[in-house]
Amino acid sequence: MKGTSVAGVGSVGFGRHDESAGSLAGRALSAALADAGLRRDQIDGLVVQIGSPRGIDYDEAATLLGLDVRYASQTWSHGRFASTVLMTAAMAVECGLADYVACLGVFRNSPLPPYGEAGRADFAEGMREGGGAHAETPYAGLAAPIGGAALATRRYLALYGVDRDKLGAVAIAQRGHAALNEAALKRDPMTEADYRASRWIVEPLRLFDCSVPSDCGTVMIVTSAERARDLAGTPVRMLAYQGINAGPDEFIFGRPGLGINQADVFDYRPGTARVHAELAIAPADIGTFGCYDGFTSQVWWALERFGFCEPGDAPDWTQDGRIALGGDLPVNTSGGHLSEGHSNGWGQLAEIVTQVRGRAGARQVPGLRLAQWGSTLGDSIVFGRDE
Question: What is the pTM for the complete model shown?
């Protein structure tokens, strides 16, 4: 799959959108087509991340968007599959199933009750894994994602003897990035005192440790690198991939060993990331890192999983501006879920494309050559310029 590129990106921005998911998808697709210099009738593939009731299912999307596709796919309606959507599109292109694949990250959270409430339209789907999709324990009242995240964070803090207030460095760095992003929902300054004064949601996680709810409408168009070079836009190569991991030690909100209901793995040591080995690069060669940050602690775990620092070292490694613009490894330069708005990773992926293109303005990482997406579940894509 080395020969695939992101040819176009379109987004409607973040926040509350008083329009249908179909309308959001239509506006985002039009923007992505314009960015790539493509016609609508050239799109012959469609991969959707979030379906009904939060988003729009692939069949309805194709009809409403006026697409006649020969390949379609759709992931389960959870936030972890943004990179899987792009990888599936790349595989479809490489296998000759489609030439131009529209990847939809479109959903609305604003009309729905909070996660964990039985009145939420997708509550039953969230519980279909028995103990809950995020290793919650419903009989104890932990029926929302923050329950599993708080348990994993508490375990991590105890395991490595970490001061929980060091999480503030993650929230503060990403708020600084959001201040430079007009599309971000939270742009007001955040000090360490502000962070520590924010109220508890589920200890040890505070309000500013949690992502900002948002509606999302983002479309990315994937095609072969050869076709992309002939388009009017500025393609960005997808250079290496690795997928989501699954197994008895895996846990959505932590790296192996942190899931309360998972097997005990206290000596976890990540090996060399496959995306780094494939490209014969080291973590130090990555200029910016984008990761899924529903909660601040997820940034620590993603950094550790991909070898930027050793297990237990991320709390110290992320201090003193190291993950802020101007630091060794700027992380989530658009503000991420914590400040730009929760987009299931689509905002971070779109930002990576913008960064590689050199169009991030005041947020631009100078001399950027390689950018990486990676999450706590081990999925990753390395992006680079189409030389």
Answer: 0.94
288 and 331 Cβ atoms separated by less than 8 Å: yes
The helix or strand, by DSSP H or E, that contains position 288, with its residue range, turns out to be strand 288-290
Check residue 249 and give its pLDDT.
81
pLDDT digits (tens, 9 = 90+) for 223-232: 999 999 999 8
Q: Give every CB contact of residue 95 below 8 A, 6+ residues apart in sequence.
A: none
Residue 120 backbone dihedrals phi, psi, to 5 degrees = -70, 135
Nearest to 333 by CA among 319, 315, 347: 347
* Alpha-carbon torsion (74, 79, 82, 88), positive or negative: negative
Which residue, among 356, 345, 352, 323, has the nearest Cα to 171 in the 3D structure?
Answer: 323
Q: What angle do CA 341, 295, 354 make, to 5 degrees?
A: 45
| H or E segment to which residue 89 belongs | helix 82-94
Which pLDDT does position 112 carry in this prediction?
63
Structural domains in the chain, CATH included, are 4-112+213-237 (3.40.47.10)
d(CA 345, CA 351): 10
Q: Which two tokens stand for residue 115?
A: 């996660």
CA distance 73 to 319: 41
CA distance 296 to 278: 29
Report how far residue 72's alpha carbon sits from residue 58's, in angstroms, rounded to the nearest whole number.
7
Nearest residue to 300 (alpha-carbon basis) of 332, 278, 327, 276 = 332
